[in-house]
Amino acid sequence: MGYLQPDPALSQDARGKGLRPKPFVFTDLAGLAAAGFDTIIDVRSPSEFAEDRVPGAVSMPVLSDAERARVGTIYVQDSPFAARRIGGALVARNTARHVEDHLSDKPRDWRPLVYCWRGGQRSGAFATVLAQIGWDVAVLDGGYRTWRRHVATRLYDEALPLTFIRLDGLTGTGKTAILTRVAAMGGQVIDLEGLARHRGSILGDLETGQPAQKGFESALMEAVETLDARLPVLVEAESARIGSVRLPPALWAAMRGAPRIMVTADPAARAAYLARDYVDLTERTAALAEKLDGLRALAGHARAEAWQAMLAAGQHTALAAALIADHYDPAYRRARARDDGQVLAELSAGDLSESALDHAARAVLERLNRR
């Protein structure tokens, strides 16, 4: 049991810190960053971590999904004591594995923050072992639920103290590429489609798949808390839903009716641009064919069959041009007929080449800086 003894090389104060986990009270991400933890450890199960996590956390589950389900079943069907006895053994075994596999290279002055669902048994058990080893470890007070309450309050219950300008335009005018360039040039930007991992249209799925709603909101909250409320924020003009995720009420309320910068380009340039931009989808012919079939009710069988024929023939630019004319542009005009947001400027993206997009981004940034 020698490893449980205080390290004589440590001062009395340092030994006191090292042997007992300390609570850490979360206020916001700035406060979390200022605390200077070297690693944020999420000890919840893999599925809990996959759905959402505190920004920057790494996963070291003390119970797998199957183990957590097993312990929960024993708790209900047998007794809380039996569940704790079996769960304790599993937690101890998994904690030992993480110490050996993931933490063996950590120095004496390494400072981790540990959390579980509510800051209770799982994080407490894991952190106690780390503290007994001698690391200055803290446990997030209230666990993951503290972070989730913070996100829900900011995005559902309060008004966002931000001024938005929407980047608007027909599908295929390079809005996302311009947005990315504006951010690289120093403009304040939230890339909603990037956070949602979706291009925003019915054909906009990415192979990576979308995050869970809670995960999207955490990523959004992380982006929001880096912004200067005194400066305008550029976002794409989106609907209330991007693929399967919804824009939270506070964000949607701040965006709806916000002034717009319109981006234009002629249909031929847009078709060529979409064929290049959606190459990951056009290379998955079966998946794209299935998506086009999903538009039959809107477009009619004859039009859908024509699209399928273009896809089968590899005529991707022609297919993009047909979708622009018959689907995207009519849908956009219907949606924007109800949009009364002021148009601040109308800018051309030219031929949508790299140089044209750079020029458009500089013009957008210049207009943004006038606010």
List the topology elements.
Elements: H1 12-18, E1 22-24, H2 29-35, E2 39-42, H3 46-51, E3 58-59, H4 65-77, H5 80-101, E4 112-115, H6 121-133, E5 138-140, H7 144-157, E6 164-169, H8 175-184, H9 192-196, H10 213-224, E7 233-236, E8 241-242, E9 245-246, H11 249-255, E10 260-264, H12 267-277, H13 279-282, H14 285-293, H15 296-299, H16 301-312, H17 316-336, E11 343-348, H18 354-368
Parallel strand pairs: 1-5, 2-3, 2-4, 4-5, 6-7, 6-10, 10-11
Antiparallel strand pairs: 8-9
3D structure, described in words:
By secondary structure, the protein is of the alpha/beta class. It has 2 domains: 2-151, Rhodanese-like domain (Oxidized Rhodanese, domain 1, 3-Layer(aba) Sandwich); 159-368, Rossmann fold, CATH 3.40.50. It has 18 helices and 11 strands. It has helices spanning 12-18, 29-35, 46-51, 65-77, 80-101, 121-133, 144-157, 175-184, 192-196, 213-224, 249-255, 267-277, 279-282, 285-293, 296-299, 301-312, 316-336, 354-368; strands spanning 22-24, 39-42, 58-59, 112-115, 138-140, 164-169, 233-236, 241-242, 245-246, 260-264, 343-348. The strands form 3 sheets. It has a 5-stranded parallel sheet, covered by helices on one side. Strands 7-6-10-11 form a 4-stranded parallel sheet, covered by helices on one side. A two-stranded antiparallel ribbon has the order 8-9. Strand 2, helix 3 and strand 3 form a beta-alpha-beta unit. The model is unreliable at 1-16 (pLDDT under 50).
